[in-house]
């Protein structure tokens, strides 16, 4: 897929051979308006395993699972210190704890792990269930809905804002900011979203540091490192990153699930018939997650070295897309096909290693509750006639609009 590059884009560094240059822009992938993961896969099967693109500041892209899994775990060579592309301005605060490498990373991460471990998440289940049922019952008699706004952004956001004890009515202000953060086309847009989120959080962070409560926000803004509480600026950065994650990612996965089931009647009915089969439902959820990976986080090469014949230089930026692990045919045969009988389907939708998503357990629980409560009430649904899902790629891929209809 090597193509001529426009002269206005990043210049090819001397250590990058011309044969490894591919015109790849993960904000504008050909075919992504039809299927985002299929659009990514075209580069996986048609180009080099690792290539360099002049887009978005110039960076490497790894396309195969074995390399991506190495890059997710090996912080000695592939640092997390800058995770966005194009690079954020130098004045931008680092995104804590994601842009901190081990071992320091573990100190910041601990309160999130404690708050989101399976036993703690189990206590949230009734609340998740109640929010889901209320939303579905409200939509059911209408016979149609715009799923993203009317459900996908309702369930996880209600649950998350309760966890951090922030006003539910603030969601309409926060959601556009989160959208700009994860899918903003340029560094300026994403930086402005960070500033806006930081400004919003000032009041709440001050309050929780002066009068701690028992909520998740209190825990993360009062983290102690070596016996000393993190600074106010670090607390703002940490809280902002947690809010960005909590407000967007599960909503995106819910939408991918709904889109797939609306267009695959046989598989939707398989799940409907086995909603009480925990083992089957767990396998179906993992298979749908595998097929619909979303997140991207960039890396920075820490020093000069050669990897599988590719010469990396200190400061090179690299994108190892999580979703390409799940759809790599070297790992999962016929990877674009969803098969609930698949054995050992491997994916990296929640990352791997020290930076694996601490909210994975909560996300899986919300997805399970969605399937059980939605399909028990609306077992037959489809894409509304005359409409088409609106999708977007970026640091987090997602569906912006999904109109569904049912009898």
Automatic annotation (TrEMBL):
Which PROSITE patterns does this one have?
Answer: CYTOCHROME_P450 (PS00086)
The entry's keywords: Heme, Iron, Metal-binding, Monooxygenase, Oxidoreductase
Q: What's the name of the protein?
A: Cytochrome P450
Concerning Gene3D superfamilies, the annotation shows:
Cytochrome P450
What does the record give under GO molecular function? Answer: heme binding; iron ion binding; monooxygenase activity; oxidoreductase activity, acting on paired donors, with incorporation or reduction of molecular oxygen
What protein family is recorded? Belongs to the cytochrome P450 family.
Q: Read off the InterPro entries from this record.
A: Cyt_P450 (IPR001128), Cyt_P450_B (IPR002397), Cyt_P450_CS (IPR017972), Cyt_P450_sf (IPR036396)
